[in-house]
């Protein structure tokens, strides 16, 4: 574990950059302090000689980049099932010359080859962080989107809640009224709901995936959101962006859209803070540990390049089965997403993203 301490002068110079950065960070479950950045559990990068074994082809950073890319990873953390799996993956593209930020939402169910105990195995991309930390996650996501990713930042669900509450909540425009009767209750992941050991065993051996969940209703609660502008505290935002099983607005693609709605709410709230002193005070209130490979030198360099962020435009790109992906099921019953061209063929996804970026320039 190591700590980077930023002097007050650095905090003020970098506050503009991080105002823009944290807007993106929060919507994908991330944020970090300007006074203290801590890496909780440093992980070893995937050795160069091993990287090619796993069908990963990340894009190298050019000598003179005109855009910078940061991978934001949200994960459950302690007390959550699959705590190191990435519940959210978003690439933040910052274009200083064009004064633009583009968010590329990457579905967690993408099927990709990842290193597992020295073998090449197909897995969901949300396992990359758990298997090889931020370095492997950067390689995997860069392979999919065709963009060089220089940095990563990761934070747990509790980090999201604390950051939103530090803002005093945010106003979010809910795109569609929806109910979710299967929102997980923390701490009840292993409840048997009155079933005997034999009944539990029967369920686990005869059913798969969500069908198993349905047999244990006491592990879940019903949540409801009305369409329109809603004020949300940290806990409510967390439920809003994590909900998956709504008949009206469920699944990962709907979650990505909801994350974008939270983004705009956070952006408006940060703009409402107004004075620089208020923004710096906000960051100090959010002082907690995150995992990142951004060091103090990178903070200074990016702050200088990005400059004043008040006039930056924010846009987004969503990868879905309505554009470049196909939903399917693996032999063992997992719901996964493949590129339309076929498993492991990311050229179409990369071309789509490049085309959307060009469109935004018109």
TrEMBL record:
The chain crosses the membrane at residues 12-32. Residues 86-270 form the Cell envelope-related transcriptional attenuator domain. It holds the Pfam family LytR_cpsA_psr. Keywords: Membrane, Transmembrane, Transmembrane helix. InterPro entries: LytR/CpsA/Psr_CW_biosynth, LytR_CpsA_psr. Belongs to the LytR/CpsA/Psr (LCP) family. NCBIfam families: lytR_cpsA_psr. This is Cell envelope-related transcriptional attenuator domain-containing protein. It comes from Candidatus Chisholmbacteria bacterium RIFCSPHIGHO2_01_FULL_52_32.
